[in-house]
Amino acid sequence: MQTLKAEKVFKAGEVIMTQGDAGLCAYFIQEGRVGIVVEKSDGKLLHMGTRGPGSIIGEMAIVDNQPRSATIKSLENCTLLEITKDDFARSVRGADPIVRLIAQVILMRYRDILRRSQTLLADSADSPSAEELEREYAEQINVVEAIKMANEFKVAIACQQLILNYQPILSMETGRILGFEALMRWQHPERGLIPPDMFIPMAEDSGLIVDASRWAIREVCQMLNRLDKARPDMQDLYVSVNLSATDFDDESFLDNLYDTLEETGIPAHRIHIEITERLLLKQPKNVKETLDSCRARGMGIVIDDFGTGYSSLSYLHQYPIDTLKIDQSFIRKMREDAIVFGLVKSILSLSQNMNIRIIAEGVEEFEESALLNELECEMAQGYFYSRPVDEMQVLDLLLKHNGSCPA
Ligand code: C2E
Ligand code: CA
Ligand code: CA
Q1: Number of domains, the chain
Q2: Which atom belonging to ligand 1 lies closest to the Cα atom of 243?
Q3: How many Å apart are CA 263 and CA 257, to the nearest integer?
């Protein structure tokens, strides 16, 4: 498998980083031990201790861009996982500004103390050493897995290991397919097909989702162009793309989206954006401006998993939302639970009054579909109509639900 060489091997005695140098990366120690040495202003060397598997070294420089505060050498053959400044910057970009500020302040004070004392208190016998604390922390957050997965995911984006499946969204009145939702999968060379729940959270935390979403939007536009060639009569079909809060923190998101539309020639109304209530609650930077701009260009804006968040209705007029997708859990329970049934009915009447379109998601049974039809729900999606399929099968679905292309 191709790798991005995140794993670095240092032989015993090699210098890993030098005091005073610019710090471009930190390392997570997978194997081996390293020694940390600080050169004081009078030229004396201060041995600060050693670190082994589970510790992070060189982390300060990637946080505050200051020169390295110590020289670190490998004491034995070491295998280290690299965390670049870019990796770190991407991860913190989406973090709460208060968390970022506090991290910076703590680090600044820590450097200050280091500078003043140029020594560290020896680890007291009855309290855990810094190394023990770090290792414990790293184990808790399963850092090796997270770093490895993030590095593999970078390869996945670069090497076409990501694929999109498409699930049809149908009109309940006509039974015709109006559009598709694009759902991402990761075709891992060793682990096989990985479902999105297994990698999207990591991609969001690491900020790599921005590149994955860019790829998805381009792929969807190209897929629509291929589809138009095969079905020139179906040029009204749209595709819905799932986006995360981190996508909205990316300042070039809109430019990139519009450039992609222009380059591929896909009109904006054929792309719908799916976001969750949780995303709106997080209030990522510029979310309103971004959504307003997309809507003004004609894109659809869908609230996904509607009903599972805080369901604050205020955002229905605060943001340019044109479609609500009722969460699958409601569809599953509405036939047995009178309260849920009442809720589905109210969402439907609310949307009719507010002129917002509705999709019922996760329709699995004929009875669910019949009931939604009775309630005059406009659109539906779910295994009852079709599971998400690959691009090749999209044409079969169109043939089945929308008929053949007129000669
Ligand atoms: P979602 O956006 O709520 O997508 C709907 C999920 O429900 C999909 O799972 C779909 O396969 C599944 N589903 C559809 N109909 C039925 C049904 O009748 N019964 C049942 N039990 N399930 C049904 P999938 O593809 O595994 O995606 C899971 C989640 O991963 C998505 O939930 C979405 O939050 C996220 N995701 C998927 N693709 C992307 C993407 O490209 N970008 C981002 N940011 N998130 C994505
Ligand atoms: Ca969705
Ligand atoms: Ca959903």
Answers
A1: 2
A2: 44
A3: 10
Q: Which atom of ligand 1 is nearest to the CA of 327?
A: 3
Q: Are both 89 and 186 inside the same structural domain?
A: no
> Does residue 1 lie within any of the structural domains?
no
Q: Looking at the structure, tell me whether residues 133 and 233 fall in a common domain.
A: no
What CATH number corresponds to the domain at position 288? 3.20.20.450
Residue 184 CB–ligand 1 contact under 6 Å: yes
Q: What is the pLDDT of residue 64?
A: 72
Please indicate whether residue 305, judged by its CB atom, sits closer than 6 Å to ligand 1.
yes
**203 in the same domain as 315:** yes
- The segments of the chain whose pLDDT lies below 50 read 1-4, 119-125
Distance 231 CA to ligand 1 centre (A): 26
Alpha carbon of 58 to ligand 2 centroid (Å):
39
229-265, pLDDT tens digit by residue? 999 999 999 999 999 999 998 889 999 999 999 999 9
Q: Indicate if ligand 1 lies below 6 Å from the C-beta of 183.
A: yes
Cα dist from 267 to 65, 261, 311, whole Å: 43, 7, 31
Q: Are residues 35 and 94 in the same domain?
A: yes
The pTM assigned to this predicted structure is 0.79
DSSP string, 341-376: HHHHHHHHHHHHHHT-EEEEE---SHHHHHHHHHTT
Q: Which residue range forms the structural domain that includes residue 62?
A: 7-141
pLDDT tens sequence across 21-37:
988 899 999 999 999 99
Mutation choice for ligand 1 from 183, 246, 247, CB with most ligand atoms inside 8 A = 183
